[in-house]
Design goal:
GO terms for molecular function: ATP binding; long-chain fatty acid-CoA ligase activity. This protein has 20 helices and 26 strands. The protein is α/β, with parallel strands linked by helices. The termini are far apart.
Length: 609
């Protein structure tokens, strides 16, 4: 069926048309969340009523078209409610990651001149109260959780809805006559800032609506579909794909309780589609392999035979002809292995959609070989965000697929990917110079390097600003080398260093679960991560790994030395952005002394040879 209303031009039009379509159907629900250990759905009628009441409250509090209202919350029903209410007033919402510290929240709220903010709980409220005196334009704070005791000038969502309902009863015309135009700014999404201060990306209603429409022709969804939501709604990828697209097609969104409960929630929600990031696949692959290897014996042999059979089957399928013997073997592997894995994912999963970072080719091929399809896509916040996605009928791992229907692509002479289409942002908020740097003659310069293959599928080779130029003048893309290192089960995270240096070195965060298993098997007594990474036998694992990788690389791409890091790179320690991208400058700066020591030691060796 696809889109319920294929003609919507603004997000309020989308919301209104979907709510009208499902009016009176109590068994239909756009959202379900966990209450007392079970998923409880929220009907379309209940959500529509709530958002109108909340919109009336915001209107009474002075929110006008064009005003900015921030949302600082984890994924929960109140997030959708706040978004719908703000947009229905012609205002602009500003989503903030709940992991942000107060000083970054203060910068964004001041930069966009937010009039109001809706927060999820007391923790987030505490952050806002601590910076409120420095926010002259902020005059409204609403908390989604119930206020147990009064807080000056703060109201909770339940109270706001009650007051909004009263306002609507007294003045039924209160929300009439608000005209939102396609080119009005719907949302200001601040980029996570791997370099410098975050910039506010202005996405219009047209940008988001056109992106939803083009995605709906690739990822076909209807009322029988459902998804599990755990990526932050503050990110454009989850917002467009995991919210607006699903809502526009009448699919149901199940809210995961947390990142830790994803496996359990998948089996309960039984989704047909999941939007996620590559790091989750690494964890799932490690978990599947660990479980298989721990069982050992015949079960382990059958599993690896099934993986090998699946791999051969999909290669022959891509070539256009599968031999009858292999088809029969594949059917048997399906009964013995693939069907059991599908059951762990709820038994209804059609495909995962992967974005936000590069999916290692081997990871995609592994899941395909066990009967799980991953559609890798590409896009940026500035492109609303989806510009490319692999097609279910033809998946090519190592690429992000062809462009969606209304996006044009060009590769600049230096390899930079350029994009054009109705999904390209209006610009950066209050930053004409930064806008002019990336949008020239209607073409958006992505900052990514790539190439287009004979089938029109795009392959991203690296970020332009991540390209390492060695002291010898060699240009090296770190991402392909990092992916080779990440293929090892003993590696959790890695980052290549070598800017203005004579050769490359790698910072490696080991997979400590795997290392502890290795230590136990080899009678290595090492209690802490620090002791483990200092152990000679452990160090040899990584020496062998880099030696084997070197055979696949040009001389200037070889990683000569490595540093084992005991603390993972995370959002909390400032080494990753909220979208789980490495903050390369911060990491390089934090380990600068250790990096210098490695280079100095190696330089001495090289100079004496």
């Amino acid at each position: 069926m696809g889109l319920i209303n294929p003609d919507f031009q603004t997000l309020p039009e989308l919301f209104t048309s979907v709510f009208s379509h499902f009016r009176g159907q109590a068994d239909k629900a756009p959202v379900a969340r966990k209450i007392n250990g079970a998923y409880a759905p929220i009907s379309y009628d209940a959500l529509a009523e709530d958002y109108r009441h909340f919109a009336a409250y915001l209107k009474q509090r002075g929110i006008e078209p064009g005003d900015r209202v921030a949302i600082l919350s984890e994924n929960r029903p109140g997030w959708y409610l706040a978004d719908m209410a703000i947009l229905s007033l012609g205002a602009t919402d500003v989503p903030l990651y709940p992991s942000l510290p107060p000083n970054q929240i203060e910068y964004i709220l001041n930069n966009c001149g937010a009039k109001g903010i809706i927060v999820s709980n007391m923790l987030q409220l505490g952050k806002v109260l601590s910076i409120w005196p420095k926010l002259p334009e902020l005059n409204m704070v609403i908390v989604m959780n119930k206020l147990e005791e009064p807080v000056d000038d703060v109201v909770d969502l339940a109270q706001a809805k009650i007051e909004g309902k009263k306002s609507l009863e007294a003045a039924p015309w209160l929300l009439d006559g608000i005209k939102t135009k396609p080119d009005d700014v719907a949302t200001l999404i601040y980029t996570s800032g791997t370099t410098g201060l975050p910039k506010g990306v202005m996405l219009t209603h047209r940008n988001l609506c056109e992106n939803v429409k083009s995605c709906s022709t690739v990822i076909r969804l209807d009322e029988t579909d459902s998804s599990l939501s755990f990526l932050p709604l503050s990110h454009a990828y989850e917002r467009t794909g995991g919210y607006y697209l699903l809502f526009a097609c009448g699919a149901r969104i199940y809210l995961a309780e947390s990142i830790e409960t994803i496996s359990l929630n998948i089996s309960e929600a039984r989704p047909t589609i999941i939007f996620t990031v590559p790091r989750l696949f690494d964890r799932m692959k490690a978990s599947i392999l660990k479980s298989v290897i721990s069982e050992g014996g015949m079960k382990e042999k059958i599993f690896f035979w099934a993986v090998s059979t699946g791999d051969k089957y999909h290669k022959q399928l891509a070539a256009g002809k599968v031999s009858p013997i292999l088809a029969a073997q594949h059917n048997l592997a399906d009964k013995l292995v693939y069907s059991k894995i599908r059951k762990k994912f709820g038994g209804r999963l059609r495909y995962f959609v992967s974005g936000g970072a590069a999916l290692p080719q081997k990871t995609g091929e592994f899941f395909q070989s066990i009967g799980i399809t991953i559609l890798e896509g590409f896009g940026l916040t500035e492109t609303s965000p989806v510009t490319h996605v692999n097609r279910p009928e033809k998946v090519k791992f190592g690429t992000v697929g062809p462009p969606v229907s209304n996006v044009e692509v060009r590769i600049a002479p230096d390899g930079e990917i350029m994009l054009k289409g109705p999904n390209i942002m209006k610009g950066y908020w209050k930053d004409e110079a930064a806008t002019a740097e990336v949008i020239k003659d209607d073409w958006f310069y992505t900052g990514d390097i790539g190439l287009i293959d004979a089938d029109g599928y795009l392959k991203i080779t690296d970020r332009k600003k991540h390209i390492i130029v060695t002291s010898g003048g060699k240009n090296i893309a770190p991402l392909p080398i990092e992916n080779l290192i990440l293929d090892s089960p003993y590696v959790d995270q890695t980052m290549i260093v070598g800017e203005k240096r004579p050769f490359l070195i790698a910072l490696i965060v080991p997979d400590f679960v795997k290392l502890r298993d290795f230590a136990a098997e080899n009678q290595i007594k090492a209690a802490s991560p620090k002791e483990l990474i200092a152990n000679k036998e452990v160090v040899q694992i990584y020496e062998k790994l880099l030696k084997s990788i070197s055979r696949q690389l040009a001389t200037h791409e070889k990683v000569r030395k490595f540093l084992l890091v005991e603390q993972p790179f995370s959002i909390e320690n400032g080494m990753m952005t909220p979208t789980l991208k490495l903050k390369r400058k911060e990491i390089t700066s934090k380990f600068s002394a250790e990096i210098d020591n490695l280079y100095n030691a190696l330089n001495m060796v090289y100079n004496t040879e």
